[in-house]
Specification:
Helix content is 20%, strand content 29%. With 734 residues, the chain is α+β, with helices and mostly antiparallel strands. Strands 5-1-21-20-19 form a 5-stranded antiparallel beta sheet, with no helix packed on it. Helix 3 packs antiparallel against helix 4. The longest helix is centred in the N-terminal third of the chain and has 24 residues. The radius of gyration is 40 Å and the shape is elongated.
Length: 734
C-alpha cells in the first residue's frame, strides 16, 4: 500500500497580498534547470529529470498578485500543469507511484479537465492501487471507453466475485528474489528462466531510466526453489542478506508498460552500480553480448528462444528501440540471435510461442497509440516465415494496456491488463486460446489472491496445469517472483424455494420435492420444512427440474437453469412450487344450520350441501358426512340428534344424483369437540358454536391427483430418473 507523502514545498495559485507588481513565471526563474530537466526527460533519463524538476518546484515562487492579469494567471496555471505532468510521468515510469499520485493530484486540484485521458487513467489506477475504488470509478467516468469499468467498480458483489476462489490458491514468495526486480518467470525443462535487473558485474554501468542496472535473463534450478514466509523488508543497508527495498528495473516491468517504454537512455548512462544482495541464479550465457536490456523470454520445443531486446539505436536519436528477437537455445545458452521481421510497429515485446513454434502472440504498440495491445502471428511450419500480425479482438484488447501474454499448457492464453476491471494495476486474465484466435469468448480474471491492487503479470504454468509461478510488485512497488498452487474447493449452489397451495397460497410443510439433474439423470429428494421451504445443495450447474408431490394435490414442476456458482456458497432462488388441492381430506360445511331440536334441511342450508354435490360429481370420491353437537343436553340425546341431522344431509345429497354407496352418515354427538367445552365446563356461546358443525371426510379416492405416493420417499434420497414412471418429470413450466 502506498504511503501518502507530500512535497516539502507546494506551489499555490492563491492570491498573496504582497508588494510585488508582477507574476514570476517558472520559465523566467528556472530556465537553465528546466532545459536540463527537459533534456533528461526527452531521453527517458527519468531519475535525473525528476531531481531537476523537483529542484524547480523547491526554488520557484509562484506568486499571483492582485495586479496579475487573467492572461498571466492562465499562463501560470498552464506552466504548473506542464511541470507536474512531467514530474508525474517521471515517477510513474520509475514506478514510484505514491509520488506520481501527489503530482497528478496537483494537476487535478487545478482542474480535472486539465488532465489528459492518459493522466486520468493513471490517477484512477493509483486510486485503485490504494484500494479507493470509488474515487477510481469517479475518474473512469471521465474517460471515454471506461464507463463499464467504473460501473463494475461500483457493483456491490464485483470484488466478492474476484475473491470467491481465494481459498483455492496457495501463493508463496520464493527465495529466488533479490534486492532488485525479478519478474517474468518461464519454466524451461528443470529450470526457471527469469528476468532481473540485479547487478551483472562490478563495473557494469547503470540504466539512466531509473538509475539502476539493465535487465537481463537469469537461470535457476527449480529443485532448489524454496518458499519463504516473510515479506521483503525495507532496509538501508545494501549489504544485508535479507530482502530489501527493490531497485526499479528498466523497460520490462509492468509499471513501465506505458508510452515512452520504447526508449532507454544511451546518452545519460551512470557509471558504477554498487553490487548488493543479488538473489539466486546465474546469468544466461550469451546475454552479455547485448548492450542494453533483454528480458521476457519464451522457448519452444525445437530449441528456439524468443525474447524482448532493447539493443539498437533509433536513427538520429539518443534512444534505442525495443523489438522481439529469435535465437537458439541450447546448453542453457543463447546464440544466433536475430530480429523478427514484425513491421509496422513502434515497439514489440513480451513474446510467447506455442511448443510447435507455429503461433506467436506478443505485445506491440503502433506509433499513433498511447497503449499496448496483443497481436498474433501464425505459420504452418517452423521453417516458414511468420504471417502478417493480426490484432486480437476487443474482448481481449481494451482501451488500456494488454501485456505479458503467455500460452499455457492448459490451453488458455494468460495475459495482464490495466484496461479490464480488476483489483488495480495490472491484473492477470485468461481466455481459451482457440477462442482468442477465433476472436470469440470471454476473458476471466484470475481473481484474488493471484491479483492484487498492485501489478500482477508474467504467468508460468507447469505440466500439472495447477501450479507454477508469476510475478507481482505487491510488496513495496517491487517485482518479486511467487509460486502458486491451485487446488479448487468445490463450490456449492443452494437451490431453494417454497411449496404452496396454488389458489390459497398457503404453505405446504411436509410436501415432497424432487430436483432432477438433467445431464446426469439423477433425482434428489427433499421434504418441505415447517415453513414450506425446500433446499438442495448441488456442486454443478446447468439444466434442472423441480417437482412437488403431495397427497390429493395436483403436481407442479419447473424447469430451471442454474448458473455456474461464483462463490463457495451460492443461493439460487427458485420459483414457488404451486400444488393445487384436488379435494381436502376433511372440511367443515359452513353455514349449514338447523332449527332447534330439528334435523330437516332448511332452504338456506341447501347451498353448502350443493357444493358437496358439485365436488362429488367432479371427483369419484367416497365421503363420510359427520354431524357434531355441543355438550349441552344429554349424551344420548345429542348422539341421536346428530345422527338424524347427518342422515337428512346425506339424503339431500343422494337426491341430487350422488350414489348412496359413495356417502355415509355419522352422528358423533358431543364426542369430538374442537375445544375444551365438555360436560360440566362453562363455555361461551362462541365456543359452543365451534363444536356445532358438519364435516365432510374423504374416505376413499380412487383417482387421486398425485400420481405417486409421496410417503415412499425420504429426505436425502438420491435416485435415478429410471426409478420413476416415464414422463413423470416432463411438461414443466419455466
Amino acid at each position: 500500500m502506498m504511503k501518502n507523502i507530500s512535497y516539502k514545498i507546494r506551489l499555490t495559485l492563491a492570491c498573496v497580498l504582497l508588494s510585488a507588481t508582477s507574476v514570476q513565471l517558472i520559465a523566467q526563474t528556472n530556465n537553465d534547470i528546466l532545459k536540463q530537466a527537459d533534456r533528461h526527460y526527452q531521453y527517458a533519463n527519468y531519475a535525473r529529470a525528476v531531481q531537476l524538476y523537483e529542484q524547480v518546484v523547491a526554488q520557484t515562487k509562484l506568486l499571483v498578485t492582485q495586479e496579475a492579469t487573467p492572461e498571466q494567471t492562465e499562463k501560470l496555471q498552464q506552466e504548473k500543469i506542464d511541470l507536474f505532468t512531467k514530474i508525474a510521468d517521471s515517477y510513474w515510469q520509475m514506478r514510484q507511484y505514491n509520488k506520481a499520485k501527489v503530482a497528478l493530484d496537483e494537476i487535478k486540484n487545478i482542474s480535472l479537465v486539465k488532465l489528459s485521458n492518459k493522466e486520468k487513467n493513471r490517477l484512477a489506477q493509483l486510486y485503485a492501487l490504494t484500494g479507493d475504488y470509488k474515487k477510481a470509478a469517479d475518474i473512469y467516468d471521465q474517460i471515454p471507453g471506461a464507463k463499464n469499468k467504473a460501473e463494475l467498480y461500483r457493483q456491490d458483489d464485483f470484488f466478492g466475485k474476484l475473491k470467491a476462489d481465494s481459498a483455492d490458491w496457495t501463493i508463496q514468495l520464493l527465495n529466488i528474489n533479490s534486492a532488485y526486480n525479478d519478474f517474468s518467470p518461464v519454466i524451461v525443462h528443470q529450470n526457471i528462466l527469469f528476468s532481473s535487473n540485479k547487478p551483472q558485474g562490478k563495473e557494469k554501468r547503470a540504466f539512466g531510466w531509473d538509475g539502476n542496472d539493465y535487465t537481463s535473463l537469469w537461470l535457476f534450478p527449480i529443485k532448489d526453489l524454496k518458499n519463504i514466509q516473510e515479506k521483503p523488508t525495507q532496509k538501508n543497508d545494501k549489504k544485508t542478506t535479507t530482502l530489501q527495498t527493490k531497485k526499479i528495473a528498466g523497460i520490462y516491468t509492468p509499471g513501465d508498460v506505458r508510452p515512452m517504454e520504447q526508449r532507454s537512455s544511451l546518452k545519460n548512462e551512470m557509471p558504477l552500480l554498487p553490487t548488493t544482495q543479488s538473489g539466486k541464479g546465474v546469468r544466461v550465457s550469451g546475454t552479455e553480448k547485448f548492450q542494453f536490456n533483454i528480458a521476457t523470454a519464451s522457448v519452444d520445443s525445437l530449441g528456439n528462444i524468443f525474447l524482448s531486446v532493447n539493443n539498437q539505436k533509433v536513427k538520429n536519436t539518443q534512444t534505442s528501440s525495443i523489438s522481439i528477437m529469435q535465437g537458439s537455445w541450447a546448453n542453457q545458452a543463447i546464440s544466433q540471435v536475430k530480429a523478427l521481421p514484425l513491421d509496422g510497429f513502434f515497439a514489440t515485446m513480451h513474446p510467447t510461442v506455442n511448443k510447435q513454434s507455429t503461433l506467436l502472440i506478443f505485445t506491440a504498440k503502433i506509433a499513433e497509440s498511447d497503449s499496448y495491445d496483443l497481436y498474433m502471428s501464425k505459420r504452418n511450419d517452423p521453417n516458414q516465415a511468420w504471417s502478417v500480425p493480426v490484432k486480437l479482438a476487443e474482448n481481449i484488447n481494451s482501451t488500456g494496456n494488454e501485456v505479458f501474454p503467455y500460452i499455457a499448457p492448459d490451453g488458455y492464453l494468460y495475459f495482464s491488463s490495466d484496461g479490464h476491471p480488476g483489483l488495480g494495476g495490472l491484473d492477470l486474465f485468461k481466455i481459451d486460446l482457440q477462442q482468442a484466435i477465433n476472436k470469440t469468448g470471454t476473458i476471466e480474471s484470475l481473481g484474488y489472491p493471484v491479483n492484487s491492487a498492485a501489478d500482477d503479470f508474467g504467468w508460468a504454468q507447469d505440466t500439472t496445469k495447477r501450479a507454477g509461478f508469476f510475478s507481482s510488485n505487491r510488496y513495496a512497488n517491487a517485482d518479486n517472483i511467487f509460486s502458486y498452487a491451485y487446488l479448487p474447493i468445490p463450490k456449492s449452489m443452494f437451490v431453494s424455494g417454497l411449496v404452496k397451495e396454488k389458489k390459497s397460497l398457503d404453505l405446504l410443510p411436509g410436501a415432497t420435492v424432487f430436483l432432477v439433474d438433467k445431464e446426469k439423470q439423477i433425482v434428489y429428494v427433499d421434504k418441505a420444512d415447517k415453513d414450506g421451504r425446500f433446499t438442495f445443495e448441488i456442486k454443478n450447474h446447468g439444466e434442472f427440474t423441480l417437482k412437488g408431490l403431495e397427497e390429493n394435490y395436483f403436481e407442479d414442476c419447473i424447469d430451471i437453469n442454474v448458473p455456474a456458482p461464483a462463490y463457495k456458497q451460492n443461493q439460487y432462488a427458485a420459483k414457488d412450487i404451486l400444488l393445487e388441492l384436488q379435494v381436502p381430506k376433511k372440511w367443515v360445511l359452513e353455514n349449514l344450520l338447523y332449527d332447534l331440536d330439528k334435523w330437516n334441511i332448511r332452504k338456506d342450508a341447501q347451498a353448502p350441501l350443493d357444493s358437496v354435490v358439485a365436488i362429488m360429481k367432479k371427483y369419484p370420491i367416497f365421503v363420510e358426512l359427520g354431524s357434531h353437537t355441543d355438550s349441552r343436553g344429554s349424551d344420548t340425546y345429542n348422539e341421536r340428534l346428530s345422527q338424524r341431522r347427518a342422515q337428512s344431509a346425506v339424503d339431500y345429497i343422494v337426491s341430487k344424483g350422488i350414489s348412496r354407496s359413495r356417502i355415509t352418515a355419522k352422528g358423533y354427538g358431543e364426542t369430538q369437540p374442537t375445544n375444551e367445552c365438555k360436560n360440566g365446563v362453562n363455555c361461551s356461546e362462541e365456543q359452543h358454536q365451534a363444536n356445532r358443525r358438519t364435516e365432510i371426510k374423504v374416505t376413499h379416492n380412487p383417482e387421486p391427483a398425485h400420481t405417486l405416493d409421496p410417503n415412499k420417499f425420504k429426505k436425502g434420497d438420491i435416485l435415478k430418473t429410471s426409478d420413476f414412471p416415464e414422463g413423470f418429470f416432463g411438461k414443466c413450466r419455466e
